[in-house]
Amino acid sequence: MPTATVTTLRPWRRIALPAIALVSAVALAGCQAAEPDEASGDPVEGGTLVYASGDAEPTCLDPHVGGNYPQALLAGQFLESLVSRDTSGEIIPWLAESWEPSDDGLAWEFTLREGVTFTDGTHFDAEAVAVNVEHLKDPATQSSTGYLAMGKVDRVEAVDDLTARFVLTAPDSALLESLSQPWTAMQSPAGIARGMEENCEAPVGTGPFIVGEWVKQDHVTLVRNDDYSSPPADAGHDGPPYLDAIEWRFVPDAASRYAALQGGQVDVIDNPQPDTIAAAEGDDVLTWIDAPRPGAANRIELNSGQAPFDDERVREAFIRAVEVNDGIDALFFGTAERSYSALSSAEQLAYSDEALFEPDLDAANALLDEAGWTDRDADGIRMKDGVRLTLRFPVSTNQSIPAEQSLFEQVQATAKQAGFDVAIELLDLSSWYSALFAHEYEIVSAPYTKVGPDVLRILYHSDSITPAPSGYFANLAQLDDPAVDALLTEAASTSEEAARADLYRQAQERILGGYYLLPLYDQQNSFLLDARVEGARTMPTVSTPTFYDAWLAG
Amino acid sequence: MLAAGAVFVMWAVATLTFFAIRLIPGDPAEAILGGPGSQASQEALDQVRRDYGLDQPLLVQYLAMLARLVTGDLGTSYALRTPVADLLGGQLGGTMLLAVLALLVAWILALGLSLWSTGRARVAAAVGEGIELTAAALPHFWLAAVLIAIFSTGLDWFPPIATGTPAGLVLPVATLAIPLAGFLAQVMRESLLDALQQPFVVSARARGENTTGLRLRHTIRHASLPAISLSGWALGWLLSGAVVVETIFAMPGLGRTLLQAVTLRDVPVVTGVVLLVALVYVVMTVVTDVASRLADPRLRQEGAR
C-alpha cells in the first residue's frame, strides 16, 4: 500500500470518504508522478507558499541534533538523504546513485551522485558522508534518532571522491531505510564545522530550498536554491523548484490554522483535526493529503511485564472487551481507518489479523473468570485476592489529539462492562514519560515513526525493555519472548527479500497472537491545501510534505 | 524600603520557580537533548549534565543560580542554547505592546461603559452591569475562538493569524481587553456611584453643571482611582492571558516562550520569564502609586507634609 493518498474534497465524497481514499490510493499505487490532480495545467514559476505548522517549533533546525518529527518536517525542505523510498516501498536513488553490500553484509559501498553542491558552494562527496555519520555518532551532537539509526555503523571510509564505504559491526537489513530518513540527511561539513549554535539556526544542505531567516515563534523563511540539481528519483521535474520561497509559520492552535487557510492567509496547514477535515469536505477549494506515517500503527500497548497483564488470558479479555470501531468512525468523522496490524499501512510488510480483535464480551468475561478475577466490588469492577482490576492509562496530551482522548474514554467505558477499571490520566509529555519510566501503567498508547519494519525490533525485542540512559525504553508492552527476539534479530540481518518478509510475518503473527497490543489506526498525518497549490506531495519515507514540485496556480 | 521589598520579591520568585520546576516530573538534561523521551546515549547525558552543572547537588545549583542572577546573568536556555536575556529581550516587545494596548482599550471601554450607565435609569444600569459581568466572565480561549469565527471566517475583516500587521493585532487585543474592561467597569461603577452621592455633586449641580459635564469634570477622577490601582494587577493578569492569546493567534511573545519552556523543562527560561513578570509587577506598583497621587490631590497633600 502506498504512503500517501491525495483526495480533492468534494461534497459528494462525504458519504464514502474512506472508500474513496482507498480507491484513490489504489489508483495512485503505480503512479510516481508528483501531481495526480486532474485539473492541473502547466507549472507557474514564482510566488511564496505559506505553510502553517501545528507541530512544535523545533529548538534546532539541524535534525541530527535530537531528531524529532517537527525537525523532519522542516529539514525535508532543505536537506537531502542518500536514498529515498517510492510509494511501493522500494528504496530509490537520491544523493547516492547505487549501492552494493558485501557478501558478509558488513560493508556497503555507495556510489554518489556526481556534481552535487551544498548551498554554501562546497562539494558533496564521500568525505562529506563520512563527516555526517561521524557527526551523528558524536555524543557532543546530542543526537537521538539519527544516533540510533547509525547503531550498527562503525565508520564511513571515503574510497574515492564518489564512493563511500559504510563499515558495519553487524549486518543491518534496515540500513537503507535508516538512511532514507531526514534525521540522517546530509549536511555540508563546512556548515557542521561552524558549531552547533550556528548550525542549528541554518543548517546547510543540498536541498531545493535554503534556510533564510528564522524568527523564533513566528516563522522560518525558506528561499529557492537556484542551483538545485539533485531531486530524488521519483520527483516530478528537474532543476530548481518553481516556488520563490516558502514562509513556514508556527501556528499552534488548530482552529486558527484552519481559519487562516479558509481566509486565504495561508496555503497549506498540517495537523488538521478530524472534524476540520470533515468540514473541509463542503469546501470545494481545499485539497486533503492523507499521509499516514510509516513505522508503527497507533495502538494501545498492554504491559505484560507486571500483573494483571502478565496473564495472557487477562490480556485477551481486555482486547475482547474493548469496542473501538464505532468510536473511531464517529470521533474521526470517517477520516481514520481501523487497523488490525502492529505496523503502519505505509509498510509493505504489515501483517493484519482482524479475527484476533473481534469484540466478544462473553468471551472476555469467561477468560477473566478463568483467570481468577471472579469477585466484583460495588462498582462492578472485578477483584482477585482483594485487588481491583485497575488499569492505569497515562495519556499524553501532546501526542493524543482530542479525538483520540475521547476514544480512550470509550475504551474505558466498554472495558468496564467486563469489569476492568481503566484509570485515564492526562499528562504533559515530561510527566507522561516519567510515568512510563516508573512502570506506572498497565496500558499506554505511544506513536513511533520509523521507516521500515525494523520498527518491530525496536518496539517488541526484549532488549528494548532495558531502559536507555535517559530512562527511555521502547518496548512498552514489555514483550519478552525469545521466539520473537530470534525472529526479529534474524530479520534485521537478512537482506534476501522473501526470507526477510517471511521472518517479519512470523514475528507479527506471534506478537499479535499474544494479545500484547490493540491496533487502532495508522498514525494520522494529514495536510489541507488551498486548491491553488499544485504538485505538492508527501515523501514516501516519513510522510513529510515536499514542495519541490509545487507551484501556485492563479 | 521599596527597593528592599522589590529585591525580596524577586528573590522569592526565583527561589519558588527554581524548586517548583524540579517538583514536576521530567529531566532537564533531556530538554537539552531533544526534549522528553529522548534516547540520548550515556555519554551525551553525562556531558550535558557536566556542562550545565546538573550533576551538582540541588543546593549548589540553586546557589550558583542566585550568584548568576545577582550579576544580572539569566543564564542560557537549555533547549534553544541562546542566552535567556537575548531570548526574552526579543519577545518582550511584542507581549508588552499587546498588554499595554489591551490595557488602554480596556480602560476606554470601561470608562465609557460606566460613565454611560451609572446612576441612570434602572434599565441602563442593569444593561451596563449585565455587560460588565458577562465580559468579565469570558474565558480568553473561548472569546478568541468566537472573535475569529465572526471577524475572520465570517466577515473576513481581520486575519486569524497575527503576522505583525496592525490589522493582525485587533483580535488579540480585543480578546484580552474585553474581559478586563468588564472588571474595570465594575470597580469604576461602584466608586462612581459613591462619588455621585457626594455633597460636591449637589453644589456643582447648583452652579449649573449639566450631567455630562458633571461626570467628565467632577466624578471621573473618583471613578478611576480604584481602577488605577487595579491596573498594576491587570498588567500581570494580561501577561498570563498572553499565554493563551499568543498561542491562538500565533504571535511571538513571552507567553508562548513560557509555555514552551515549561513543556521542555527549560529551567533558565522559565525562571527568566517569571522574574521578568515579577519585575513588571513591581514597576507597575510604583507607577500606579504615582498615578494615584496624580489623580487624587488628597494623596499629594499628605505626601507633601
UniProtKB/TrEMBL annotation, chain A:
Keyword Membrane in annotation: no
Residues annotated as signal peptide: 1-29
GO BP, sorted A to Z: peptide transport
Any one GO MF annotation of this record: peptide transmembrane transporter activity
Domain Solute-binding protein family per the UniProt entry, residue ranges: 90-461
Pfam families membership: SBP_bac_5
A GO term from the CC aspect: cell envelope
Subcellular location: Cell envelope
Entry keywords, A to Z: Signal, Transport
PANTHER family attached to this UniProt entry: PERIPLASMIC BINDING COMPONENT OF ABC TRANSPORTER (PTHR30290), PERIPLASMIC OLIGOPEPTIDE-BINDING PROTEIN-RELATED (PTHR30290:SF10)
Family: Belongs to the bacterial solute-binding protein 5 family.
Record's protein name: Peptide ABC transporter
Organism: Agromyces bauzanensis
TrEMBL record, chain B:
GO CC term (a single one): plasma membrane
Molecular functions per Gene Ontology: dipeptide transmembrane transporter activity
Gene3D superfamilies to which the protein is assigned, alphabetical: MetI-like
Record keyword Membrane present: yes
Positions of the ABC transmembrane type-1 domain: 92-292
Transmembrane segment boundaries: 6-24, 92-116, 137-155, 167-188, 225-249, 269-291
Pfam families in UniProt: BPD_transp_1, BPD_transp_1_N
InterPro entries xref list: BPD_transp_1_N (IPR045621), MetI-like (IPR000515), MetI-like_sf (IPR035906)
Assigned protein family: Belongs to the binding-protein-dependent transport system permease family.
Protein name: ABC transporter permease
Species of the source: Agromyces bauzanensis
